[in-house]
Amino acid sequence: MTTVGASAADGATRHDATSLEARFQRNIDRDRRIEPRDWMPDGYRRTLVRQIAQHAHSEIIGMQPEGNWLTRAPSLRRKAILLAKVQDEAGHGMYLYAATETLGVDRGTLTQKLIDRAQKYSSIFNYPTLTFADVGTIGWLVDGAAICNQVPLCRSSYGPYARAMVRICKEESFHQRQGFELLLTMMAGTAEQRAMVQESVDRFWWPSLMMFGPPDDASPNTAQSLRWGIKRDTNDEVRQKFIDMTVPQAEVLGVTLPDPELRWNERRGHYDFGAIDWDEFTRVVGGDGPCNTQRLATRRRAHDEGAWVREAASAWAAKHAERAR
Ligand code: BYC
């Protein structure tokens, strides 16, 4: 039932919300950062939680394909490098979950959503790592793609996310270089090693291009995320930047990228490339990639096996609080 008084109050509330939203958008348009205690529209908060959580889950699930080679790295040096990289990824996941906590959602809730398949993680981590060359290819292509995607996110409108990205990007840059260096070393080795690198690049090239998300005309979130300054570039723009950066690197390595249509377009000032298999992308994101079941089962098992640690930490915190009282 609407009374005169209630409708005036509703009008006032609506007016407040409209002016708050206008002020919020003005701050974004002036390139000012939004901080946790600032007013923000629900949709902005929801979009950030979705994107940051998905990114955090990708870092955590992304430890699995490389972790697969930790016990079989060919030398102590390679093992130490790989171990450091995988540990960095755990750290990235933690910074990102901490950023979602500033938006009012805790890590436990998000982890539960991941293992219940209610939230996504990057499609790329549903592909297997069949040879040690894949460790180098992931560093070169997957971390290379991550850098292209994430450097613009250092200027994202939400302060805690943007600041987390600055540190993550520095570490991703080291990861990309270690991958390139590993492949360069293998390419200077035996014919068998060179073939191993080429075979790995053949498998990872197209899935790496899918990391940037669907094409712009099929991306439901991009337009609004750009208006809110959460994203700074569209999926296709970042994908093109990655291709333009990577083709000359492939030439230095001496590998062939598995796309016969890849060639420089003088007029566009970019490389043209062949059609991406978006059906494969949809299948993999939908749960039907080569390793989706395995990745989630491993994550679920680790979560279950860690229950006693969470319980012990909670008991300790409760006891500590009790003593302090
Ligand atoms: N895989 O409207 P769109 C790393 C989803 S970690 C799965 O364009 P948006 C690393 C998308 O979420 C790399 N799902 O979305 C770690 C949306 O679904 P929902 C992770 C994907 O958000 C360890 C729907 O498709 N990086 O580098 O505007 C070792 C429609 O898409 C994918 C990040 O997460 C995908 N590839 O743009 C080594 C970066 N693509 O949520 C390396 C941060 C799209 O509506 N994230 N979807 O159900 C982003 O920049 C953006 O979220 C994306 C997608 C560009 C990925």
What is the strand and helix layout of this fold?
Elements lengths: L3 H26 L12 H20 L1 H5 L8 H26 L5 H9 L17 H18 L8 H29 L3 H20 L11 H6 L7 H19 L9 E3 L4 E3 L5 H11 L3 H14 L1 H18 L1
Antiparallel strand pairs: 1-2
Helix pairs in contact: 2-4, 4-7, 6-7, 6-8, 6-10
This protein binds benzoyl coenzyme A.
Question: Please, could you describe this protein's structure?
Answer:
By secondary structure, this protein is an all-alpha fold. Helix content is 68%, strand content 2%. The protein has a two-stranded antiparallel ribbon with strand order 1-2. A hairpin with a 4-residue loop joins strand 1 and strand 2 (270-272). Bound molecules: benzoyl coenzyme A. Benzoyl coenzyme A is lined by residues 50-51, 54-55, 58-59, 62, 89, 120, 122-123, 142-143, 146, 149-150, 210-214, 219-222, 225, 231, 235, 285.
Strand content: under 5%
In the sheet with the most strands, the strands line up as 1-2
**Would you count the extended β strands for me?**
2
Computed structural class: mainly alpha
* Helical coverage, percent range: 55-70%
Bound molecules: benzoyl coenzyme A
| Overall outline | globular
How many helices does DSSP assign? 13
Order of helices and strands: HHHHHHHHHHEEHHH
Rg (CA only): 23 Å
Give the low-pLDDT segments: 1-10
- Mean pLDDT metric: 94
Task: For the record, give the distance between the C-alpha atoms at the N and C termini, rounded to a whole number.
Answer: 49 Å
Reported for the largest beta sheet, the result is:
2 strands, antiparallel
